[in-house]
Write a structure and sequence with these properties.
This protein has a 4-stranded antiparallel sheet, with no helix packed on it. Strands 6-7-9 form a 3-stranded antiparallel sheet, with no helix packed on it. It has a single domain, classed as Archaeosine Trna-guanine Transglycosylase, Chain: A, domain 4 (Roll). It starts with 7 loop residues before the first strand and ends in an 11-residue tail after the last helix. It has one helix at 89-105; strands at residues 8-9, 17-20, 29-32, 35-38, 48-50, 59-62, 65-70, 79-80, 85-86. By secondary structure, the protein is an alpha+beta fold.
Length: 116
């Protein structure tokens, strides 16, 4: 693969994972902005790769939002998937829905009161 080919994409600056735009091989060197990432294992196209070390218990952030929690330490360059992430999106959606209901009950139509 060409050195200039984009192989991963970080969707939001807050993210600690990137999306593989192609299937990645183990020990593949990836340039992501000013960072060099070496993949630890094969990562399927469309899956997540850690762009830095993610300690056990830390949030997994994609799109700038929490999508799960690391259930083990995840090294930079590792595949981030169901084997090392607890998916808490359903719980987060319920928390967000409750926040909206609480604000609605207080007379506000906006969950964050920003008017956006």
């Amino acid at each position: 693969m060409s050195k200039n080919t984009v192989q991963v994409r970080v969707l939001n600056p807050k993210d600690n994972v990137a999306v593989a735009l192609t299937a990645l091989e183990a020990d593949q060197v990836i340039q992501q902005n000013c960072n060099t990432i070496i993949t630890k294992e094969q990562i399927p196209k469309g899956h997540k790769v850690a762009i830095r070390k993610i300690p056990k218990g830390e949030d997994i952030v994609k799109y700038g939002f929490v999508i799960g929690v690391a259930i083990s330490d995840i090294d930079s360059g590792s595949w981030v998937h169901t084997h090392n992430v607890y998916d808490n999106t359903e719980e987060l959606c319920e928390e967000y829905a409750q926040e909206i209901r609480n604000n609605r009950d207080k007379g506000s139509v906006y969950a964050n009161n920003s008017g956006i």
